Amino acid sequence: MNHRVTPVNTLIRAQRELKMVYRIVILIMILLVLGLPITIFLSIGFITEPPKYHLRIAYIFAKISLLFVMITLFKFTDPVKSSIMKKLSRRPNLVAAIMA
Q1: pLDDT value at position 88?
Q2: H helix runs in the chain, sequence order
Q3: Percent of the chain with pLDDT over 90
Q4: What is d(CA 97, CA 81) in angstroms, rounded to the nearest whole number?
Q5: For residues 31 and 65, is the Cβ–Cβ distance under 8 A?
Q6: DSSP string spanning 53-69?
Q7: What is the reported pTM?
Q8: Are 76 and 23 in contact (CB under 8 A)?
Q9: Where are the domains positioned within the chain?
Q10: Which residues cross the membrane (predicted)?
Q11: Cα 89 to chain center, whole Å?
Q12: pLDDT range class, residue 77, cuts 50, 70, 90
């Protein structure tokens, strides 16, 4: 019995770790792709004369990248997703008066 349980447990553990690595890679790719314009605008500011509103443009990209990271984390974490969906789908308590 003991010989059969070990390979199954290691397979399940390996699948969980692979899923975790996949999620981490997705988050890093989002931050790299959407953080690239911020880096470019800030490095332009140190080297040459930047465009007129370069910090505003960089700020917009920073906010968009944070939005995508939050959406991705919401999608990946099941307890957070279920608790927020419970709060959103909660029906209000209706109190009806009884006429006697």
Answers
A1: 80
A2: 2-47, 54-76, 78-88
A3: 0
A4: 36
A5: yes
A6: THHHHHHHHHHHHHHHH
A7: 0.60
A8: yes
A9: 2-88
A10: 21-47, 53-76
A11: 22
A12: confident
